[in-house]
């Protein structure tokens, strides 16, 4: 039978709860989220349970990673449904702070990452984004003091940025990536999928198909540039406004020119109607 997790809304309450777990020699896994939980998030929680004896899930829609033109106010918030999902997974603590707890009056410090944060992918279109992510994740790590933290691979550049930050700042947290969970037709699960109209939802699967076809061509020996050009054309022909469709080194996100340049990852970001979708796959 599932049990309700402890809900902490202030840093002192969270610290007391984490200290109580530590007194019992628990290992702790953190799953940072912005809520609107779906099966992809549930898969992160289940991986966290396999990697530690206790699980903390944070739910915080972080305003500092949204530009003024983006969807902070409209971002889906489904607290009751989220809590029910986490209770069903036997999560131990839900860290659910308000903005005043995360960014109290006078807050004046940011983490501004470089390295994979300046790869020319998401950062090219959302230059504010990774400073907001790094700052809030750095705070979550110091607040929750986990042994491991679980992030989905769908936000692949974000995963690389967070892992680099944890290493560089010696935060004592092992960052673990979890494979992207997809719908039956291949669309990556995302909280923003709810914005898609029925027609857009059908069209959205083009991203996954284009990545798979380009990856297959590269594996078969076709040169990287024409293989990727065909995939990009497929995406724009479907009606997307394409931000990027690129193949990069999977570890560093450096640009590559051939399949011999190392393990490769195809990454895409494109807008369909008013909804911006991102995805990636290994080559």
From TrEMBL:
Domain of life the protein comes from: Bacteria
Location of the protein in the cell: Cytoplasm
Principal location class: cytoplasm
Substrates-to-products reaction catalysed: (R)-pantoate + beta-alanine + ATP = (R)-pantothenate + AMP + diphosphate + H(+)
Pathway entry: Cofactor biosynthesis; (R)-pantothenate biosynthesis; (R)-pantothenate from (R)-pantoate and beta-alanine: step 1/1
Entry EC no(s): 6.3.2.1
Family, per entry: Belongs to the pantothenate synthetase family.
NCBIfam families linked: panC (TIGR00018)
Job of this protein: Catalyzes the condensation of pantoate with beta-alanine in an ATP-dependent reaction via a pantoyl-adenylate intermediate.
Name of the protein in question: Pantothenate synthetase
Lineage of source species: Bacteria, Pseudomonadati, Pseudomonadota, Alphaproteobacteria, Hyphomicrobiales
């Amino acid at each position: 039978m599932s049990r309700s997790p402890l809900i902490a809304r202030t840093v002192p309450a969270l610290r007391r709860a984490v200290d109580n777990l530590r007194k019992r020699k628990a290992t702790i896994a953190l799953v940072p989220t912005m809520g609107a939980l779906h099966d992809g998030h549930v898969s992160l929680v289940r991986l966290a349970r396999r990697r530690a004896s206790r699980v903390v899930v944070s739910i915080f829609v972080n305003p500092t990673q949204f530009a003024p033109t983006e969807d902070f106010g409209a971002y889906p918030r489904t607290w009751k449904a989220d809590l029910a999902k986490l209770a069903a997974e036997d999560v131990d603590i839900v860290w659910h702070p308000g903005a005043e707890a995360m960014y109290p009056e006078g807050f004046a410090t940011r983490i501004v990452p470089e390295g994979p944060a300046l790869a020319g992918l998401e950062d090219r279109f959302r230059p504010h984004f990774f400073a907001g992510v790094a700052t809030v994740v750095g705070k979550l790590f110091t607040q929750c003091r986990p042994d491991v933290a679980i992030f989905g691979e769908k936000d692949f550049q974000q995963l690389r940025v967070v892992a680099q930050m944890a290493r560089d700042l010696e935060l004592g947290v092992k960052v673990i990536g979890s494979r992207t969970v997809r719908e039956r037709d291949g669309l990556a699960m995302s909280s923003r999928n709810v914005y898609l109209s029925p027609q857009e939802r059908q069209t959205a699967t083009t991203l996954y198909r284009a990545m798979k076809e380009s990856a297959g061509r590269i594996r078969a020996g076709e040169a990287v540039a024409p293989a990727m050009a065909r995939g990009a054309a497929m995406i724009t022909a479907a009606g997307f406004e394409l931000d990027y469709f690129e193949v990069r080194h999977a570890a560093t996100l450096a640009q590559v020119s051939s399949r011999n340049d190392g393990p490769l990852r195809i990454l895409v970001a494109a807008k369909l109607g008013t909804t911006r979708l991102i995805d990636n796959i290994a080559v």
